[in-house]
Amino acid sequence: TFLRAAALLSQTYKQAHFLLVGRGVDYHNPALRELVNELGLAERTRLAGERDDVPRLMAALDVFSLTSSYGESFPNVIGEAMACGVPCVVTDVGDSQWIVGDTGQTVPPRDPEALALAWREMIERGTQARNALGREARSSVVERFPLKAIVTRYEALYERLYAQKTAEQFPSESGEIAGSRAL
User: Fold this and answer.
1) Are 43 and 83 within 8 A, CB to CB?
2) What is the three-class DSSP state of 71?
3) Mean of pLDDT values over 135-161
């Protein structure tokens, strides 16, 4: 979807460049390399592979996209891009739309035309408007997902799950939850 949308956008915006990052997303992947060439994107697409400097790369983007087709419940990478001040265009899979909210755009999965149109709209906003949207995205993710609150929620979840497991393994005679055990 991403590459097909890139090919569509490239018909109008010849200066657009695309960066793909991730395990197996490199020039050693023959199917991916072939598709990039087939779509005429070789000169404007960088297959960067797995990287350890992703925040630096994200901060350099004008727009971030996650174009999953399925299986993403809460993709952290969207929040990471937003924390870098980058507006996002994502597919409507899992919590992606909820995470992005009104600080970016959401398109249907497996729809390169919709993705290319959303990118085009982001480009046409201009640099200042995109940067302002990126600042809104950063504020949103910092406000809605503060690390301390997330850690507290995970701790509460783990404690609740442990208590349930303990109750299942060691029920009291009355059927109530037995006292907690030390780990």
Assistant:
1) no
2) coil
3) 92
pLDDT value at 177 more than 60? no
Q: Are 67 and 91 in contact (CB under 8 A)?
A: yes
Q: Which residue has the tokens 């109750």?
A: 167
**Residue 43: Cβ within 10 Å count:** 9
- Distances in Å between the Cα of 130 and the Cα atoms of 27, 43, 50, 82, 135 are 31, 25, 27, 12, 9
- Both tokens of 156, joined, read 């509460």
- Rounded distance, CA 104 to CA 119, Å? 10
Confidence of residue 183 (pLDDT cuts 50, 70, 90): very low
How far is the C-alpha of 38 from the C-alpha of 34, rounded, in Å?
Answer: 6
Q: What is the β-pairing status of strands 18-21 and 45-49?
A: parallel
Average pLDDT on 29-58 reads 97
- Three-state secondary structure along 100-157? HHHHCEEECCCCHHHHHHHHHHHHHHCHHHHHHHHHHHHHHHHHHCCHHHHHHHHHHH
Average pLDDT, the chain: 92
By the 10 Å C-beta count (0-12 exposed, 13-18 middle, 19+ buried), 91 is classed as buried
Residue 171 clears pLDDT 90, i.e. is over it: no
Helix, coil or strand: residue 91: strand
Pairing of strands 105-107, 88-91: parallel
* Gap between the Cα atoms of 50 and 104, Å rounded: 25
